[in-house]
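We were asked to recover a plausible sequence for a given structure. The inputs and outputs are reproduced exactly as logged, with field labels preserved.

PROBLEM: sequence recovery
POSITIONS: 214
GIVEN STRUCTURE:
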């Protein structure tokens, strides 16, 4: 049984796909679940939002890893969360009957980092897509993104040009990395800071629908 707690919003009928939303730093599994109906208004997808396993002294909410430096997650906590998320994803695929090829891994900030970490790991099945709000492809000792074996993977990257937490250059580098490997990337910048711009929900919803119907 998976070690992570999670909330879910089922599809109205047989699910057309699976959307897993990983929350950001210091929040919990309820933080992004409200996006389910915005990204999937016809309720065709089974949407799951896990809770990160780590609690830090003096810091509210839950975390996926410790942050010694932006862009460079702590190895031990990163790998522990990656292991637990992999177990949860495997169980979701088995329980729902929806496979990795019908799954989009998404998130915000630290949750985006984990979506990249699971979606681009060579030891994991390739998902259909990665929905990346305000995050980065992590640099961690012993882990590197595997790209040549997941050429059908698509990515939606959105980031604020005035983000004071995770600089927009991280999103630009992620775009260059994925596009350089031949992956299909839908890239969006907005004038805001470290948040999801509501004006991008329509674009993200269209991208999500097309990713899970191609």
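RECOVERED SEQUENCE:
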């Amino acid at each position: 049984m998976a070690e992570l707690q999670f909330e879910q919003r089922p599809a109205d009928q047989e699910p057309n796909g699976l959307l897993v939303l990983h929350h950001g730093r210091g929040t919990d599994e309820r933080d992004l679940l409200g996006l389910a109906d915005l990204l999937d208004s016809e309720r065709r997808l089974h949407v799951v939002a896990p809770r990160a396993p780590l609690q830090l002294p003096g810091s509210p909410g839950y975390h996926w890893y410790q942050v010694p430096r932006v862009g460079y997650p702590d190895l031990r906590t990163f790998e522990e969360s990656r292991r637990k998320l992999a177990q949860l994803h495997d169980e979701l695929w088995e329980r729902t009957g929806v496979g990795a090829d019908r799954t989009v891994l998404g998130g915000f900030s630290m949750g985006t980092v984990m979506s990249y970490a699971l979606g681009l790991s060579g030891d994991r099945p390739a998902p259909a897509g990665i929905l990346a709000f305000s995050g980065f492809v992590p640099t961690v000792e012993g882990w590197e993104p595997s790209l040549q074996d997941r050429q059908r993977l698509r990515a939606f990257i959105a980031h604020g040009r005035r983000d004071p937490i995770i600089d927009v250059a991280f999103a630009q580098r992620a775009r260059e990395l994925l596009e350089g490997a031949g992956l299909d990337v839908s890239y969006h910048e907005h004038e805001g800071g470290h948040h999801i711009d509501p004006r991008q929900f329509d674009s993200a919803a269209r991208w999500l629908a097309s990713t899970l119907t191609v």
